[in-house]
Recover the amino acids of this structure.
């Protein structure tokens, strides 16, 4: 135990003395957390709408004004031909083109039905889908208005089918409270997996490991001495990040904060174990970095942080059984935002604990002190 | 010499890497308080043999005893009783002199007060009082080598292994370094040193010369010079290497 | 010149001899594009829904049937008591509950109004909004089909989804993945290989040789340029053949601009190497500074137009943003060069800037 204390003391001295690492460990994550949380938004507010109005009637103007009044659209351009309109789409000057053909008003009055064309830049299928539904609802509003005006004023009392939506746990639809825990998980994972592993390989590459190997230090003592400091730093940052979230973004903490930290503590053991394991596979810092980068990117993009993991194909969801981020990000969000308790997250608890035990034993076993 | 004072015993030591034999049938003894030189060209197998003696690597076959502990089963006991300083400089560059002393003292299980006491003596002895809070990377190489040696013997081991300890150091510092080695030997510490500086080899009590994984000569420097009818160790070495 | 060619040869040998690194360099991009191409998407599919049907009439049955048939939803359970919803949400799998009120159809016919309640687990506001709008539109179409009044005016919108008719998620994610992989791999490789030489002290040997500093740097970068280019070709081939992402525009223009992007990433790597003293800090800068911003501020996952103004401004310095824009425009829209001039100039400018800073830093170090 005494030996481990000396090793940990050494690691902290080295970390705190490293002028390039310190800001990278303590300042950059905080800055990224605060700034990037704002980026993760799919809510469309300023859909750029170009109008191609070939009818130029009172009815068509009224329709345009309905779009103008909607908070989701900014009517940016008027355009005079379908070619020009498509150029605007190509140049990203418009996201949507609303094409009102000539005869619009006439057909409404004569046939009681008419067609309009809507062109949507659909490269991003999801946002295109959202656009579609916003446009539909503006059109419906306009349609109702026409019916009240032209067909039957009584209709204003019959609302027809009313769909009432309730958004539980987050009635304001604040995307930041969901993203902050996600980005925080990425940051502490980077610190744990990356720095922990790197630190080991570095001693091998510099050669100081030889000096350690001839001493009576036991394998486990060395590993603990190497990993524990980063475990502590990462856990500290997890707590600190939550504090920032509470103060700046007022994220709700409905559940027990201690549960978050407890899950975090186990999770970070998994992360450090993976870092350690990868470091036993790599001969140089360069190789280790590519390995860590490879797994980090997969863990992050598949873990459900930015895009919902439930939407992935089944095989990808099966891969997530090996993805520690998937477990922890779900856990932290559910505890904080829904107030879920241990009984709701028992599977994640067992999975992470088993994972930690397995990966740490595998890594220590693989980490051979003698060659 | 008496068997009781024998501190390293090597018999029929072989080390193979696949089809390549790095050490072939090594046999020698080293006695307490002796300065034992281990010579050879680069790639002759010195470092391999040294790593085995330190418990960093296991022999393919043969008997090796360090301070009467068996190399196969008692590596941890061996590690407690040896010191080691390697070719590559092995103190932590981003720790200060004092912090390195504390770390290695702590690793070898010295108590706080012992670390304090021996550390003070060490710093005073090397005349580093003004520099004790400097980072290792900020002090000259010669100081680093002397310091690394002193830290390697801080826990008063029976044997200290030095792997080309004076590489890249100027002759004056090398002399000072050897003064430290003699002091340690005087206190009964056995010194096992590899080098390729032939003038340095002459400082040793006994020498073994390795060529292609085998020990081709083993005696005290003067007898070797006489035996090979040479004027200095340099000539002895060249003759031995060329002959094969 | 001869010395220079010899030096480049040495660099190539260094890289290709290291089998592990080679596997890593080519294996990573291929595996990642395969996984992300198939798995990562923000399309909604198989969202678990629970139903509380107090109506049990034709309308509710019809809606439930439509929901069940849709690829977006799957019905996880039918419940009797609204108090159970919270428990389902807290376990985390179920995202939405649909509640039909009693006598739905009767009310709709007699009083002309009735209501259906959607309850969403909204901790993920983005997804909740999507789910809600998809559900509403299924419900609306289903009810409209049955209860439309021929007396009323109907405006029929014809939607045309340009450049991505079937709204494939891959169209969105493949260009982003390309940018992410190319910039990270290129920048990391160069910055680390240069700092490694510094750390090992071999850089000084090179510097005292007759090679000029710029030659040294170029020599170090050329092999990686070559590697990255092959990577770009592989990634493009995979997205074309495996993921059916079309290339409507000029293939050679796309390749040329990809080379420009790679050049930019390599110069960024050189600049990072001049800013960091050790491999460790070079890696940390490459990963910490590049990874998250490239993911989040480039339009890879989240549209830049939705961000606060400050972030929109910030996104302009993220090189991947411009490359993603180029790739989308050329591949999916099929535009000519004139539509990507702005992006090209910006990437070119970044490239010059990074090289300039590197040369300046490099000279300072030598003085």
């Amino acid at each position: 135990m005494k030996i481990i204390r000396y090793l940990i003391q050494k690691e902290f001295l080295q970390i705190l003395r490293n002028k390039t690492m310190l800001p990278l460990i303590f300042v950059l994550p905080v800055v990224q957390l605060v700034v990037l949380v704002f980026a993760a938004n799919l809510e469309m507010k300023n859909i750029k709408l170009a109008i191609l109005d070939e009818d130029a009637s009172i009815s068509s103007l009224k329709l345009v004004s309905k779009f103008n009044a909607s908070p989701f659209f900014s009517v940016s351009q008027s355009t005079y031909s379908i070619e020009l309109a498509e150029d605007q789409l190509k140049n990203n000057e418009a996201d949507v083109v609303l094409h009102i053909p000539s005869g619009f008003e006439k057909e409404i009055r004569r046939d009681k039905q008419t067609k309009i064309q809507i062109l949507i830049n659909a490269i991003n299928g999801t946002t295109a889908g959202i656009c579609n539904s916003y446009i539909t609802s503006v059109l419906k509003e306009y349609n109702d208005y026409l019916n009240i005006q032209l067909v039957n004023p009584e209709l204003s009392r019959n609302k027809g089918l009313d769909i009432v939506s309730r958004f539980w746990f987050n009635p304001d639809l604040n995307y930041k409270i969901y993203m902050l825990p996600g980005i925080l998980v990425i940051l502490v994972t980077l610190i744990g997996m990356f720095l922990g592993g790197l630190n080991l390989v570095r001693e091998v590459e510099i050669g100081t490991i030889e000096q350690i190997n001839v001493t009576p230090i036991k394998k486990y003592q060395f590993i603990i001495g190497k990993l524990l400091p980063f475990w502590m730093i990462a856990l500290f940052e997890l707590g600190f990040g939550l504090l920032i979230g509470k103060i700046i973004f007022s994220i709700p903490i409905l559940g027990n904060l201690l549960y978050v930290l407890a899950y975090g503590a186990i999770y970070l053991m998994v992360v450090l174990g993976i870092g350690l394991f990868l470091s036993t596979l790599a001969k140089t810092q360069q190789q280790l970095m590519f390995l860590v980068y490879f797994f980090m990117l997969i863990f992050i993009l598949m873990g459900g942080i930015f895009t919902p993991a439930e939407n992935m194909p089944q095989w990808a969801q099966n891969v997530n059984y090996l993805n520690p981020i998937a477990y922890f990000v779900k856990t932290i969000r559910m505890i904080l935002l829904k107030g879920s308790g241990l009984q709701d997250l028992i599977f994640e608890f067992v999975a992470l604990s088993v994972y930690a035990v397995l990966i740490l034993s595998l890594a220590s076993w693989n980490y051979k002190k003698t060659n | 010499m008496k068997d009781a004072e024998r501190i390293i015993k090597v018999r029929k030591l072989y080390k193979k890497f696949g089809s390549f034999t790095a050490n072939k049938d090594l046999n020698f003894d080293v006695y307490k308080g002796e300065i034992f030189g281990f010579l050879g060209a680069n790639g002759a197998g010195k470092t391999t043999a040294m790593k085995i003696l330190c418990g960093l690597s296991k022999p393919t076959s043969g008997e090796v005893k360090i301070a009467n502990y068996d190399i196969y089963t008692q590596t941890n006991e061996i590690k407690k009783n040896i010191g080691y300083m390697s070719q590559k400089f092995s103190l932590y560059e981003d720790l200060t002199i004092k912090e390195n002393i504390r770390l290695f003292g702590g690793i070898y299980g010295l108590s706080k007060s012992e670390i304090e006491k021996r550390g003070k003596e060490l710093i005073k002895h090397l005349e580093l009082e003004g520099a004790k809070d400097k980072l290792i990377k900020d002090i000259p190489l010669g100081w680093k080598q002397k310091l690394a040696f002193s830290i390697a013997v801080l826990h008063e081991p029976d044997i200290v292994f030095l792997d080309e300890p004076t590489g890249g150091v100027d002759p004056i510092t090398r002399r000072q370094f050897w003064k430290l080695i003699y002091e340690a030997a005087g206190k009964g510490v056995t010194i096992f040193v590899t080098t390729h500086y032939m003038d340095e080899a002459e400082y040793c009590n006994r020498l073994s010369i390795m060529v292609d994984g085998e020990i081709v000569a083993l005696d005290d420097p003067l007898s070797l010079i006489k035996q090979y009818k040479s004027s200095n160790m340099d000539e002895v070495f060249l003759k031995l290497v060329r002959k094969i | 010149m001869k010395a220079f060619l010899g030096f480049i040869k040495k660099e190539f040998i260094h890289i290709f001899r290291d089998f592990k690194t080679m596997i890593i360099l080519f294996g990573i991009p291929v595996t990642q594009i395969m996984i992300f191409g198939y798995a990562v998407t923000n399309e909604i599919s198989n969202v678990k829904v629970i139903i509380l049907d107090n109506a049990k009439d034709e309308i509710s049955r019809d809606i439930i049937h439509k929901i069940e048939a849709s690829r977006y939803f799957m019905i996880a359970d039918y419940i009797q008591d609204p108090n159970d919803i919270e428990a389902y949400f807290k376990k985390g799998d179920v995202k939405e509950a649909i509640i039909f009120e009693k006598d739905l159809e009767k009310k709709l016919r007699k009083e002309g109004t009735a209501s259906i309640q959607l309850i969403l687990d909204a901790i993920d506001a983005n997804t909740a909004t999507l789910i809600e709008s998809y559900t509403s539109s299924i419900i609306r179409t289903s009810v409209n089909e049955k209860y439309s009044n021929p007396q009323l005016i109907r405006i029929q919108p014809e939607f045309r989804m340009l450049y991505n008719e079937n709204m494939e998620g891959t169209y969105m994610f493949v260009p982003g993945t390309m940018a992410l992989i190319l910039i990270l791999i290129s920048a990391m490789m160069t910055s680390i290989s240069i700092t490694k030489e510094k750390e090992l002290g071999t850089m000084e040997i090179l510097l005292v040789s007759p090679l000029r500093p710029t030659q040294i740097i170029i020599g170090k970068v050329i092999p990686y340029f070559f590697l990255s280019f092959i990577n770009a070709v592989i990634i493009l081939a995979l997205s074309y053949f495996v993921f059916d992402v079309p290339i409507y525009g000029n293939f050679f223009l796309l390749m040329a601009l990809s080379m420009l992007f790679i050049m930019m990433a390599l110069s960024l790597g050189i600049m990072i190497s001049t800013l960091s003293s050790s491999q460790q800090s070079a890696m940390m800068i490459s990963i910490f500074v590049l990874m998250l911003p490239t993911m989040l501020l480039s339009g890879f996952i989240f549209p830049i137009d939705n961000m606060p103004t400050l972030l929109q401004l910030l996104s302009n310095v993220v090189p991947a943003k411009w490359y993603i824009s180029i790739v989308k425009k050329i591949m999916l829209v099929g535009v000519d060069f004139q539509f990507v001039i702005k992006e090209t100039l910006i990437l070119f400018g970044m490239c010059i800037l990074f090289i300039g800073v590197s040369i300046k830093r490099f000279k300072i170090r030598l003085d």
